[in-house]
Design goal:
alpha+beta; Nucleotidyltransferase, domain 5; OB fold (Dihydrolipoamide Acetyltransferase, E2P); 4 domains; 5-stranded mixed beta sheet; 12 helices
Length: 498
């Protein structure tokens, strides 16, 4: 992030919320809920409680309600398999682990229903740019990173950095690394900082393992407050304010050990007003969940987020401020470019994004709007690609998915419309019911048909559609009674044969 900013952290036992504020306006929101963190990535001192040769698996006690599950395929090669040729049969689990043995294990799948957590003894620790593999030696590069040439350049840079670190620390090489996709544009300083952080973390885990009792948690993936210090703080961060004294002290202790450059910016917020009220952040969250975004000029954006892509539609609304219509459109599009860049970060939208600016006749206007869009997108740390205007006047872009969007985290599809954004009219449902009664009357011979539906549908049946209902009753020769059910959604109905 290349612009001065402040970070505000609102902490409660159930939820941590982080806002990044630039020039008094919130630009990014991060939310983490305690009950939704899961166990994946956690490292435990596990105790083998039972070996199952028939399943080539073992049950491991890691201090949870249910024993966790370790399959032979998830055992690191060091136990009886490191020098094995590919042609040789795998060493069976009963020759590699035994009951009562203590193993360092990592959760790779959360417990679900009656199933315990799935474990591996192949430990990996994720950092901001790298994944550390303490039991391996190789350097891996994400296949999503550019060309083979670029991947080889990154590999050579990593080897150089690791050699320098080993020389400083007076040791031979230990541990391997995988470069994550967001390491593609990282500087040597950023990579070196991640190497140092991950090695220090591993040293702490090993130290804990020597004295911990079986079933103890040795390492938990960083919580959101800690990830702020590791991932979000830059030279441009002016302050980090948190409204919990306990969490402030916890962050300071973590920062002093792992991210000392960030500690001086950390402050405990003691104000009487809730910290998010300082910049109306709760109202901004509500706006970030809305479909319509109003622009200061009177124009507005319509944001539609689907599984396949997200679209932004720009409209002039009531804006008539410029001298002529061309200038009105140009000014609205310029303001929209700024708003779109902010909304992408605020809502954390990823994948394919289509921008439908208002059509501009002048080429210089199109170029200026595109230049403004690219300038505003430059504030974003997330990797993006942006095309020029297409023949249809659309701008296509992609933004890397780094985490769930704000809407997916805070909302769920409407149970009434199931995410369609619309429901059938009462009249449409009435006609569905009339057709269904006719279909049923041809197959069955009840004394009466009873329709149970929402109040709006029943009311329309008794009023505007009463003639059609009477005609159907006469045609089938059976009575039809109506019953309003307040709990039914507009489209829900039942036809009961009596």
């Amino acid at each position: 992030m290349a612009f001065p900013h402040d970070i505000l952290i609102n902490w409660t036992p159930q939820e941590t919320r982080v806002a990044i504020v630039e020039n008094g306006a919130v630009q990014e929101l991060h939310v983490e809920r305690a009950l939704e963190r899961g166990l994946v990535g956690n490292i435990y001192a596990g105790k083998v409680s039972r070996v199952l040769p028939g399943m080539q698996s073992a049950f491991i006690d890691i201090g949870l309600e249910r024993a966790a599950f370790l399959h032979v395929a998830d055992l690191h090669a060091e136990d009886g398999g490191s020098n094995r040729r590919h042609s040789e049969a795998p060493v069976p689990i009963e020759k590699r682990v035994h009951e009562g043995q203590t193993l360092m294990v990592q959760v790779i799948k959360d417990p679900i229903g009656t199933k315990g957590a799935r474990l591996s003894t192949q430990v990996s620790i994720a950092g901001r740019l790298l994944v550390f593999l303490p039991q391996d030696e190789h350097i891996g590069i994400s296949q999503k990173i550019g060309s083979p040439e670029l991947r080889e350049q990154l590999r050579q840079r990593m080897l150089t950095l690791l050699g320098e670190a080993d020389n400083r620390e007076g040791r031979t090489r230990s541990g391997g690394f995988i470069l994550r996709t967001n390491a593609e544009d990282a500087s040597d300083e950023e990579l070196a900082a991640d190497i140092a952080y991950l090695r220090k973390t591993w040293a702490t885990i090993r130290e804990q393992a020597l004295k911990a009792a079986p079933g103890s948690l040795l390492y938990q993936d960083l919580n959101l407050a800690q990830r702020v210090l590791r991932d979000l703080v830059t030279d441009q961060t002016q302050s980090i304010r948190i409204d919990s004294l306990v969490q402030f002290q916890s962050m300071r202790a973590f920062g002093q050990e792992f991210t000392p450059s960030a500690v001086g910016k950390l402050q405990h917020y003691k104000g009487e007003r809730p910290i998010f009220d300082l910049y109306n952040i709760d109202q901004e969250i509500e706006k970030a969940l809305a479909r319509r975004v109003d622009l200061k000029s009177g124009g507005y954006l319509i944001v539609d987020q689907t599984e396949a892509l997200t679209t932004f539609d720009v409209n002039t609304g009531g804006y008539v401020g410029a001298r002529n219509f061309d200038d009105t459109i140009f000014k609205t599009n310029l303001e929209a470019a700024q708003a779109i860049a902010r909304q992408l970060r605020l809502r954390n939208l990823g994948g394919i994004i289509i921008l439908d600016f208002i059509d501009m006749l002048r080429e210089d206007h199109r170029e200026q709007v595109l230049a403004e869009l690219r300038k505003q997108l430059g504030r974003d740390r997330t990797k993006m690609t942006v095309s020029s205007f297409s023949p249809l006047g659309l701008v296509e872009m992609t933004r890397k998915r780094t985490r769930e969007s704000l809407a997916h985290m805070l909302c769920q599809p409407c149970p009434t419309c199931e995410g369609r954004g619309q429901v059938k009219t009462a009249r449409t449902v009435c006609y569905d019911i009339l057709r269904e009664i006719l279909r049923e009357a041809r197959q069955f011979n009840p004394k009466e048909f009873r329709v149970v539906a929402s109040a709006a549908v029943v009311e329309m049946m008794l009023d505007e559609e009463s003639d059609h209902l009477a005609g159907l009753i006469e045609f089938i020769g059976k009575p039809v009674s109506l019953q309003a059910e307040p709990s039914f959604s507009p489209e829900h109905y039942d036809i009961v044969l009596i």
